[in-house]
Write a structure and sequence with these properties.
Helix content is 0%, strand content 57%. The chain has 117 residues and is mostly beta strands. The model has no long low-confidence stretch (mean pLDDT 96).
């Protein structure tokens, strides 16, 4: 089992910045990659950014150049630095971990990010 706890969401004005954190615990050695997803009201959950155990990153086109995913392996924590936020970035952001112990992701509880115009 892997447990994920997100923090760092909140309300910010357009153009502002936020940093989300996701702390992993449990069977962390089984994790292959971690990522951030988001789900806006009435929309499907979508991948925002991910990072593998080798440090390879991937970003959705909508956030390239504005968001940065990183990790601190000593703290078992993944971060999402979000800059130049836009109202369309408003969503619940979820941390996810893919592992070799089960075919589906582990998920955090989600953290709300609201960007006002």
């Amino acid at each position: 089992q892997v447990q994920l706890v997100e923090s760092g969401g909140g309300l910010v004005q357009a153009g502002g910045s936020l940093r989300l954190s996701c702390a992993a615990s449990g069977s962390i050695f089984s994790i292959n990659a971690m990522g951030w997803y988001r789900q806006a009201p009435g929309k499907q959950r979508e991948l925002v950014a991910s990072i593998t155990n080798y440090g390879i990153t991937n970003y959705a086109d909508a956030v390239k150049g504005r968001f940065t995913v990183s990790r601190d392996t000593a703290k078992n924590t993944v971060y999402l630095q979000m800059s130049n936020l836009k109202p369309e970035d408003t969503a619940v952001y979820y941390c996810a971990a893919s592992t070799h112990i089960r075919p589906t992701n582990y998920w955090g509880q989600g953290t709300q990010v609201t960007v006002s115009s």
